[in-house]
User: What shape does this take?
Amino acid sequence: DGGITQSPKYLFRKEGQNVTLSCEQNLNHDAMYWYRQDPGQGLRLIYYSQIVNDFQKGDIAEGYSVSREKKESFPLTVTSAQKNPTAFYLCASSRRQDHQPQHFGDGTRLSIL
Amino acid sequence: ILNVEQSPQSLHVQEGDSTNFTCSFPSSNFYALHWYRWETAKSPEALFVMTLNGDEKKKGRISATLNTKEGYSYLYIKGSQPEDSATYLCAPRDDKIIFGKGTRLHILP
Assistant: This one.
């Protein structure tokens, strides 16, 4: 079955460490997205990519980095510059046509030790 | 689109009753609006994609309407069932998608 796989489901990080969240899709979608959810908040866009080797900052990109070397993969690195990284992270993908809905992964919950 | 409001934030409905909730958004530069259902321990799933003023979409007992001129969309659930318990997200977009905080629906047996 086609879908989006995020790994790991739970992730713990020591302060000062970078950590990378994986997102892989086999839906042949051009566009991929990273969102963050905090308690009482909606999904906030961190980064998105419409095509391989290109990506744009979302609303809360500071302290994060991404790469898009392959169509199927859009890893998110939470750097030590992100002061409040504890959150639930969701990856999504969609066809490039603008009105297409997004397909989501199951998410990764990141906690700071 | 800077400000997306969903109301109510939380809703308790008796099984068998019908219900509705609202998504409000600035009406300028509207392109499309998505509704998603997000069940606990699962990933959000798309319910509807709405693009035209006056659009009405239906999927089983769930339907949605769109008014782009006044900037709102309603989601209706007829004859609520336990499996309808979820958070319902709306996401209007102009040049990018902005998600509302969602309406958390609890169906009471």
User: Anything to note?
Assistant: Chain B touches chain A at residues 4, 31-32, 34, 36, 42-46, 49, 51, 89, 93, 96-102 (CB under 8 Å). The radius of gyration of chain B is 13 Å. Chain B has a mean pLDDT of 92.
